[in-house]
Every structure is written in structure tokens, then in C-alpha cells.
Amino acid sequence: MEKKRILTKILASCGIALVLLPVAAPIIFALIGLIDDGRFLLDFLMPFELFPIVLAGTGLLIWAAVRAKTRVKMIVWSFVSVIALVLIGQLVAMASGLASGRIEPTGFWWAIVLIIIALAALGIVAVGVGGIFLMRDLFVSKG
């Protein structure tokens, strides 16, 4: 039974690291740039450029949550919201002409797409928070 718990803890901790790395990396790089050249340049699309890493981490978290029988709904629904928001953002960008470059990235449609991107990034953070709660449950519970 203890081997099962150890594997579950390893899965959860690796999953958390993989999910939150694409969120933390652009912030870290922006801070390094701020210290180096005095300019704060944040690549807010990096979590989506590194989405396969988020996907792998989410898979590990879901696997760990199923093994632990806790936090499955939180992790899965957070990830489903990320997928839905990314698809909605892409549809809005395509329908408005932002994706093709037909319109400039300014104004109402640009703001809507940015809000959707921000919400999707928060969804990725929510998956990571679900993983942190899972880790807490794994270390606090007995058995």
C-alpha cells in the first residue's frame, strides 16, 4: 500500500511541475530581462506554446488523482475549461479576422481575445492549484 502512495506522490509532484512550468517560465524570463536590460517583456502566450508540457502534467495529475480518489473533478474540470477557452479564443480570432491579419490587433475584438487568453491561463493555474491540493491531501491523509 505504501508503494502505491509513493508512486501517487511522485506522479502528483511531477504533474504540478509540468503544469506550472509554462506559467512560471515567462514570468521568470521577464524578470531576468528586467534585471538585464531594464525592460519587462512578458510572453503571455508561452503557456500555450508549451501546451504539450501542460497536457503531460495534467495527465499525470489526473492519474494521481484517480489513484488517490480525490480532487479528480477539480483537475479535470479546470483542464476542460482551458481547452474550451482556447477553442473559443481561436474561434473569436478567426471570426473577427485577427487570426488572418485582416484586422489590426487593437480594439474590441483584440480585448476579447486577450481576456479569453487570460482566463485560459488562469485555468492552467487552477489545474496546478488542484495538483497542490492533491499533494496536500496525499501528505495529510493517513493510509
Features:
about 80% helix; mainly alpha; about 140 residues
Describe this protein's structure.
The chain is an all-alpha fold. It has one domain (2-140). The protein is built from 5 helices and no strands. It has helices spanning 2-37, 46-49, 51-68, 72-96, 107-140.
Mean pLDDT: 94
Supply the number of structural domains.
Answer: 1
pLDDT under 50 segments (min length 5)?
Answer: none
Q: What structural class do helix, strand and pairing data support? A: mainly alpha
Number of strands: 0
| Percent helix range | over 70%
Distance between the termini: 8 Å
Q: Gyration radius, to the nearest Å?
A: 18 Å
Order of helix and strand elements from N to C terminus:
HHHHH
Number of helices: 5
Q: How would you characterize the largest beta sheet?
A: none
Strand content: under 5%
Envelope shape: globular
Compact summary:
By secondary structure, this protein is mostly helical.
Mind sketching the topology for me?
Layout: H1 2-37, H2 46-49, H3 51-68, H4 72-96, H5 107-140
Helix pairs in contact: 1-3, 1-5, 3-4, 3-5, 4-5
